[in-house]
Amino acid sequence: MQLRPIPRALRGLKSRNRLIAVLLWSIVILLGAVAVLTGLMSLSLDFWPLLLLAALALVGALLIWRLTRSLLGQAERRLEDAVWLFESVNPVEATLFFNQAMAWNGVVAALLVDKVPARNQACVIHLSKLDYPKERRTPVTLHESAQRQTLLVKLKDKYVDAVKLDPAAFEIQKRRFSLLMQSLLIFTGLAFGGGGVFSLYQAWQMHQGLVCIQASEHWPRATAEITHAETIEELRTTRSGEPGRVWRPEISYRYEWAGRQRRSDRLGCVERTWKDRGEVESIVAQFAPGSRHPLWVDPVAPDRTRLITEDPGWVERRKEGYVGAAIALAVAWVVVQLLVSQGLTRLNLRRLEEIESAVGGEPVKGS
Fold first, then answer.
1. For residue 334, what are the CA distances in angstroms to 298, 331, 338?
2. For residue 3, what is the DSSP state?
3. Looking at CB atoms within 10 Å, which of 103, 115, 264, 270 has the fewest?
4. Which tens digit of pLDDT belongs to each residue from 120-130?
5. Do the domain assignments include residue 277?
6. pTM
7. How far is Cα of residue 135 from the mean position of the Cα atoms in its chain?
């Protein structure tokens, strides 16, 4: 749709639309890149939680892509209406009642016009946080017409646009906001729940490792002949998000059990890596190819073996760390649930009711 020339006074609206477009498309590109990178890392490291994160990032990118197209289209239509209102409609003095009530796509306010015929109008007003009025009631200049749903408001020296809300649309906005909050709770629940389940799974793995270490002390022994031993370097992402290096010993051997030759590269009950390369190299140096070493074999599952002496203290600390992470995630989830459901949602619904009261001409608390 071709826009008519934009008056100098309204160029700020055009600049705002461009800024919103840049921010939204940047988020889409960023989420898409996260989805691709985490997907590739999941495949290369065989680490399934990253695949889940990649799927969530991809879904987020698609949803924001659709939302971006819709929001930018609406913004362009509002800009065209604002130009028409500015050039065709005489402004009137009004009062902006503003209490930071939120809707799913903006901030809800009330415009109170005392000029005959007196009228009040609820609207979704598009303000940046820096332009929020400091007072609940602020004098403004208003351009409006029954032919347009868009309102043009001059707040101090800046023009902003708004969209009219009739009672039915107001109720829709309230329901959409509640739905948005419920979706936020579900999303955070999935995120925290996924992290908690993963932490508990890792803690269970460490617990099984401790049980295995204790049981292996009573396993019968066999003899392992080393066929291969080397130090392997791996890249891992640290907690700060930066790439880091870790090392692990890779030792292959063969052994005989119950008259059958077997091969394995299993070192013990728990798979682990080391941050100190020298420590790994000292382990590898003990297992030169061709050398023979005692091997503990689980008589129930002969493929489960232990070649090296493991540190149960390290395993126990890892287990406690994963349990602590699961508890921390559970506490964080409860806090987020309380803040969103008991704090943000209730506060905003009360503010929306104040807007309804202001439009209906009833007393407004705190006004």
1. 43, 5, 6
2. P
3. 115
4. 899 999 888 88
5. no
6. 0.62
7. 34
